[in-house]
Amino acid sequence: QPQPPGRPQQAEHPLPQLANDSALLHGCAVTVAHCIVGTARTFGQPRVYTSILRHLVLPAAPRRCSRFFYVLDLSSGTDSPKGGSFRLGERDLWDGPWKLLPPTDYLLDPSLP
To answer: Distance between CA atoms of 28 and 22, rounded to whole angstroms?
Structure first.
């Protein structure tokens, strides 16, 4: 259901239950938490999220040994006008970057301090 204006959007899709990560992470020599925070202006572009996977995620640990946490602003409404306007939806994330970098948890359109 839609969130009231000004309230952050919580996860609509079921996220994996990670209460007992030990079984999921068996065999991982290292585990890495990636925290991706900011305005998602270009994040939905394949060249951006595949570059993150190739140059940041995979050199640190195998993808199955990584966890991804997001705090994303999905519109240019609170951004400066320099980059033009944009609007992404949660579906855009699931259909694009989150196929390769699936969220462990996320918060969309949080209020600014």
So the answer is: 10
In angstroms, rounded to a whole number, what is the distance separating the alpha carbons of residues 59 and 89? 29
Residue 50 contacts residue 100 (beta carbons within 8 Å)? yes
Q: Which residue has the higher pLDDT, 7 or 110?
A: 110
Question: From the CB of residue 66, how many other CB atoms can be counted at a distance below 10 Å?
Answer: 22
User: 9 has which bridge partners?
Assistant: 108
Coil, strand, or helix at residue 109? coil
Contact in structure between 56 and 34 (CB atoms under 8 Å): yes
List, for residues 9-64, the tens digit of each pLDDT value: 555 555 555 555 667 788 898 999 999 998 888 899 999 999 999 999 999 999 99
Spatial distance between the Cα atoms of 80 and 61, rounded to a whole number of angstroms: 35
